[in-house]
Amino acid sequence: MTDxxxxxxxxxxxxxxxxxDSFSDGGRYADLDAAVGHGVRLREDGAxxxxxxxxxxxxxxxxxxxxxxxxxxxPVIRELxxxxxxxxxxxxxxxxxxxxxxxxxxxxxxxxxxxxDPDMARVVRDAGCPWVLMHWRGHSRQMRxxxxxxxxxxxxxxxxxxxxxxxxxxxxxxxxxxVDPGLGFAKTAAHNxxxxxxxxxxxxxxxPLLFGASRKxxxxxxxxxxxxTPRPTAQREAATVATSVLAVAAGAWGVRVHDVRxxxxxxxxxxxxGRPRLTPVRPxxxxxxxxxxxx
Length: 295
Ligand code: PMM
What we know:
295 residues
């Protein structure tokens, strides 16, 4: 597992939210057996990692306290790890991350990119585990008010770069770092599409990139009914698969998805086709060169 960050990929992270209120699977896996069963299924479906979260990050969600978050995730992590399923802990709290690593988790997925808890860098450095640094500007309650950018791609790249620098300064090894643009976190639908379209510009940070679009509301809005009703979360799978393949073809290292089998199947097709890569193009169809993409 220590080689996961350097894996040729694509890495598929399966989502397991042990919460009553996550936007897509909230409430479904609150019971231990159901959660463990689902984690095993995600692994069988092709997940390289099962990402376990005990606090909803849905926009507008209230925070839970650290003890509640830990109580939700630790038993699931223990059982899945004992069953040989590689687990990441989706938390922005150092205390929860530390306990999760003790319970068998092998990766820390921090939606705050180390901003929410100043002690997180120490925990990750001491564990020597991979750390997913997601772009983040504030907790769920405030994030809708923070979606303001001069240019979303250059701003997200710069802010992620600062999080990487802070991690390195705290002694985290460069080869343990994964970055993530944080689709839907202080981002409008237009921001999410812009980040998707210009993903190669984020790769210039020089770190493996995780892409998490699965079932998010901008896909529901894209696929809305004629009366404007967003497509329900469970019916956003084909769009999710498309985002995953396009992200990987644009150079993403991995994707974070709810329906692992659908995305793993699509990525198997991509691999069998010789891993074709997208080249960024101008609106007139001519390729954008590296220098121009950096801007
Ligand atoms: N999205 C959610 C939660 N955790 N972690 C990373 N690294 N990237 C994401 O995009 C991300 C995340 C919210 O989605 P969920 O409610 O389906 O877990």
